[in-house]
Backbone:
């Protein structure tokens, strides 16, 4: 629970062929080159074929994250720096995070190194079989980039933005990914050629905030994922709470307006009908006369557009009210807001805090902190890596 | 976690001098008489001075609860029944439950016997020091009735209908017992002359449903106490969840009407402003032109009075809506409704279930059961006994 600083921001927001993807691939080559034995930076450049400057940058990054250590040495008569992988790698594990328009994949060895990580854009309305095939193929490529075999993967955890019925292992309906309704853990396992663990993305966010974020010591934490839909992951008494059969944390379907709009879930006035990215985008599309994405909302609000700021403020207030309801029940120490709109920072968090303070018990207003995630769009995949690691460790004891 | 059937309904709804109180005292004498050695019913009658018929009734009750066993024997040449205390008694523990107008006290030995139990009526607006003195005095009397010394009490747990700040050990304000605001665990301990554990009454209800009710195997359970105020106790993952500093479960302050009435907590439209006994009694008092108590509500609704039934139905629907919000977050297997109005049975539970089904996620409507308590008004004191037992057992290991 102490690797937040070491894993840092490695290879985020990467698309295939982008500079980030290239950098991740290069980094994997450096790690691979060091696996056999410590080496100077010149030797690494020789072994990998990378430019000296590239190796130097990567080694600096890895050292800052605690993944390698360096010590002075002499190489071919010159002063040099001997680079050593900081700790033996454990079993390779894989975290995968499917969203409405993306799949993010991280291949990790034992703490603290995420070896390679990538995000592939998926079309809205993507179908499970297609997306699983894309993810499996990209995973194979990433493993190859990292010099690993598929057979070396000890555990895979797959996150989805849907409730999961633990009794059947199937994705439940009425989610923001309706094309995945009824998809089972078995079917996903088949796509990856090995048993996978299936988890809700908000649950993974909550796990990541404790494993990689600043909240390793916090026993009661709610992770709120504000995206196309709204979900939450609950850590209660230091443990993830999945509910009696797996669908706990449906903050998006907490009711905030008894006479409100009909919701996809069949209820009325759910938080999602007031405050999701989908609803915000709909309002703004009507004003701007063009489709609006979550990236547009972030950009426009940061640029000061009044309509976008108003929509964010209204949504934030409703989210704060729903968080107050959840906090009146659970009295968490920390509520972490994640998802694509978390980039808005205080533009989003201030109205959330205002809504919270209006409706939370007075004692909670001074004890429950509402903060933005420090893990950006990686929170979910890092949670998946964490669960996969736990599975691999548990399996090692069998 | 298996003593529900054994403790049964022993000595409920008892007032000093009432038949129930007499019966409890007699029962305690029988248990006391059996402590030294097994005895026939005639011998018990001799030892206690009780009539044979009384002894026979008490022994039958105790046997049904598993507190004693009987076996055929011969006594003075006649066939008789030898009565044996079923198990060695453990340390004596005390559970105490303060309400807005009562204090209930139970003295218990190790599972499964509650030796004596009594309820004393307190005036509305009772002050902590007065009520604590009354409770301490009545406890001494009960101990004496049971043939026990104050010094033999291993642990006391005191329940209050207020949130408790675990950081300071003090009762927090804005509860239905404002006269107790700021009273500390230390002050209560002083009143009883030994350290006591302080707990929220709804939390105790939740504990009792698992220890004495039908839900020992249920890991995720919410106990809703519907009284002058509305509170809830949360068992999550098999453990009581008190929140980051003790005030979890404030279901009465979950917001169900954004533009609703101002609440004592400082928020608006809290469940308590729509559905507590206080609010129901206010509505009905205006109609009937006289003060209405919770007992009146129960009696009138059972008798078929339309206004009372309407008030109960409206409150039930609002409670169901708040339970749906809680369930959408926590996905409990069981929600148990307790408090004085639980006696209404389906008259209350049906509208609660209707409200729940309208606003809960579809998957929950078939998986979360909403039931009335089987422990009546004893739930809280039995929870206090359970916590006191746990404390006594924990202390034994120190």
Residues:
């Amino acid at each position: 629970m102490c690797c937040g600083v070491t894993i840092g921001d490695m290879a985020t927001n990467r698309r295939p062929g982008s500079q980030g993807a290239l950098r991740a691939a290069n980094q994997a080559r450096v790690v691979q080159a060091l696996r056999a034995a410590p080496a100077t930076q010149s030797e690494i450049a020789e072994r990998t074929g990378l430019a000296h400057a590239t190796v130097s940058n990567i080694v600096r990054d890895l050292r800052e994250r605690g993944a390698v250590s360096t010590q002075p040495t002499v190489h071919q008569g010159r002063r040099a720096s001997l680079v050593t992988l900081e700790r033996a790698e454990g079993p390779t594990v894989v975290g995968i995070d499917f969203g409405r328009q993306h799949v993010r994949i991280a291949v990790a060895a034992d703490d603290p190194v995420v070896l390679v990580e990538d995000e592939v854009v998926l079309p809205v309305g993507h179908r499970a079989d297609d997306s699983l095939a894309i993810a499996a193929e990209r995973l194979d490529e990433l493993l190859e980039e990292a010099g690993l075999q598929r057979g070396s993967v000890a555990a895979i955890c797959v996150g989805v933005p849907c409730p999961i019925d633990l009794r059947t292992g199937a994705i439940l309906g009425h989610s923001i990914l309706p094309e995945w309704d009824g998809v089972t853990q078995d079917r996903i396992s088949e796509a990856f050629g090995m048993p996978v663990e299936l988890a809700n993305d908000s649950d993974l966010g909550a796990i990541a905030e404790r494993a990689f974020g600043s909240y390793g010591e916090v026993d009661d934490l709610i992770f709120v994922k504000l995206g196309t839909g709204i979900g939450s992951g609950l850590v209660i008494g230091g443990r993830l709470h999945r509910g009696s059969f797996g669908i706990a944390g449906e903050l998006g379907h907490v009711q905030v307006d008894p006479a409100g709009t009909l919701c996809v879930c069949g209820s009325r006035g759910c938080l999602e009908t007031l405050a999701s990215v989908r609803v915000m985008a709909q309002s703004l599309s009507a004003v701007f006369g063009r489709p609006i994405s979550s990236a547009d909302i972030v950009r426009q609000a940061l640029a000061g557009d009044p309509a976008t700021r108003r929509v964010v403020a209204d949504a934030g207030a409703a989210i704060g009210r729903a968080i107050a309801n959840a906090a009146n029940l659970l009295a968490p120490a920390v509520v972490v807001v994640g998802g694509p709109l978390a980039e808005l920072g205080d533009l989003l968090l201030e109205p959330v805090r205002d809504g919270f303070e209006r409706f939370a018990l007075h004692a909670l207003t001074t004890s429950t902190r509402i903060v933005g995630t420090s893990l950006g769009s990686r929170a979910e995949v890092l949670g998946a890596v964490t669960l996969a690691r736990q599975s691999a460790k548990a399996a090692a004891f069998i």
Remarks:
- Chain B touches chain A through 51 residues (CB under 8 Å).
- The longest strand of chain B covers residues 68-75.
- Residues 306-330 of chain B form the longest helix (25 residues).
- Chain B has three domains: 4-85, 92-205+378-396, 218-374.
